[in-house]
Amino acid sequence: MQLTKAILIAFLLCKSFTSCAQSTSIWKNKKCAVALTYDDAINIHLDKVIPALDSAGLKGTFYLIGSSDAFTKRIPEWRKAAANGHELGNHTLFHPCYGKRPGREWVRPDYDLNIYTLQRMTDEVKMNNALLEATDGKKKRTLACPCGDTKIGDSSYLYGVKDNFVAIRDATPDAYDVNGFGGVNIQWVTVINNSGDQLIAAVKKAMESNALLVFVFHGVGGDHAINVSAQAHRELLQFLKKNESQVWVAPFIEIAENIKRK
Question: How far is CA 192 from the centre of its chain?
């Protein structure tokens, strides 16, 4: 997929060049911030991704599905990852999405958002928070909405759960409203078969525009239909490490907290 297709159109909220330039103070006086996020709690995150991040001295955010075998059968390993500085984020208990959209044949009928109520979704999100707290002992958390779907009928469930989270890692209008990040330049890349050069080009663009760049990974070298090669991922990490004097790489929760403090 071409980089332009992989970027979920940068939401450029800066009202002027001056406000964008001033945002460098938010990124700890570096040119930009990068959040490396990984969705769906899959085995390869523990087996390959976390060792790669640790080798490069970088920290990521892992959005975990509470019912996933890769979570429930490997809790001690996730606990160790959290103790080592990686963020364990909430990706709900059962990963509910709208199942009647194109390409969503994989959504199980029991977890189709079309049959959910706001109360059911709120309960599911809060229960997953409890599981994660039992794993890493932390009360502060961020949420990533499965499939980017945030509404039950005509109402967003984010407003009912927002007080349980530091921030929501999504590009939907209601997520922006809930986060209240103000005039921050945020750019997004959903990673699907991108080359290393394409991933690095996204970082360079963020550096030029003093932006927060959020990478949304799933599979890395396999284990998921939404995938990027291990080589491309490795090339990105090498670039980030080489440019750490100019790029602040941190878990999404740390970046969100810093935005709100500033």
Answer: 15
Q: Which residue has the tokens 């209601």?
A: 174
- Strand-strand pairing, 32-39 and 247-249: parallel
Cα 222 to Cα 227: distance, rounded to the nearest angstrom: 6
Please tell me the distance from the alpha carbon of residue 37 to that of residue 89, in angstroms, as a whole number. 9
Output the six-digit token pair for 29.
């006086």
Sign of the alpha-carbon torsion through 70, 73, 77, 81: positive
pLDDT digits (tens, 9 = 90+) for 8-60: 333 333 333 334 444 578 999 999 999 999 999 999 999 999 999 999 999 99
How far is the C-alpha of 255 from the C-alpha of 179, rounded, in Å? 12
CA distance 203 to 241: 12
Contact, 62 vs 68, CB < 8 A?
Answer: no
pLDDT number for residue 64: 98
Q: Are 147 and 172 in contact (CB under 8 A)?
A: no
Q: Strand, helix or coil at 166?
A: coil
Contact status, residue 143 vs residue 165, Cβ threshold 8 Å: yes
Q: What is the mean pLDDT of residues 152-158?
A: 97
Give, as one character, the DSSP assignment of residue 103: T
Residues 84-95: what's their mean pLDDT?
A: 98
At 90, give phi and psi (nearest 5°).
-90, 120
